[in-house]
# Entry
Amino acid sequence: MNSTNRSEFIKGLRDGVPIGIGYLAVSFSLGITARECGFTALQGFIASITTIASAGEYIGFTLFAANATLLQLIIMTLITNARYTLMGFALSQRMPEGASLKTRLFTGVSITDEIFGITIARPGPVNPYYPFGAAAMSAPLWAIGTALGITMGNILSARIVSALGVALFGMFLAVIIPVCRKDRAAALAVIASFAASGCARFIPFLKSLSAGNRTILLTLVISALFAVLFPVPDKDPEGDN
Amino acid sequence: MHSGLYTYIFIAVMALSTYFCRVIALTLIRRPIKNRFVQSFLYYVPYVTLAVMTFPAIVEATRTPAAGIAAFVIGILCAWFCGNLFITAGSCCLTVFLVELILHI
# Structure
């Protein structure tokens, strides 16, 4: 690690502290879900340190509990984490000229919503040591929080567990709602998704689907519909070219 | 019940498919994508998926639907006006705790 990379790594570690504290709280409720789905603290720790994804792990754990096949797991993981592909795409436009495959594979390790956010917000080409520093600080806290949720979830009162159980949904809202302020089409897509998802619980065919399959189907249909009705402006997503 | 080994295979498959999502575009795309439908579709996917996963699941996650509905409304307001991830998540938790406390559940 040369001196530039080391200083970027240290900046990443520092900026990863507030992210990690937040992760600790949120992953605790993920751990409660993991425990209900039959995971031990060690399994939850390993799952969180290797996957580092809130919605992706949540869906993975629930699929495990529902005896889903590995193929269903792969399809749902790819769908749930499609936003990481979009983030990877955005980062691909900001990699240094002629970045090697190794550099690109290394950069991808640290993509989470929050780390991507602080990385893309910085000017200039991306140095992968910065997001890696942020991940090195926050991912262990994410994994520890998951393990704590699994071990301590059952000694906390039912009232506290019920309250912590909605933290993940609060986190999802914090990802999708701020965009709705700036983009009316995204706001409409979110409202349509809430409505369709609510109605799907009562519609005969959709009602009989598993939660995972219902999510895949609704996501594909609603996203395609909005891509046709409200295509995004035809320009570079970072707007700096 | 699953065996321990199967659980670790499941975890490995989850981790690898997630990593695949992170690196596929980063490694394959070395110039801007021009197709407008693909760009638009990818733009909407994260919001639609998270919205579908949030509602009505948030209402079903609490011990009384009233607490879940309250958390849903407070969460939207909080995310709209403040936008901070951890304040929003915390407000949802606090809302559920208070509603269930008031309703003696």
Notes: Chain B has two domains: 1-31, 39-105. Chain B touches chain A through 77 residues (CB under 8 Å). Chain B has a mean pLDDT of 88. The two ends of chain B are 32 Å apart (CA to CA).
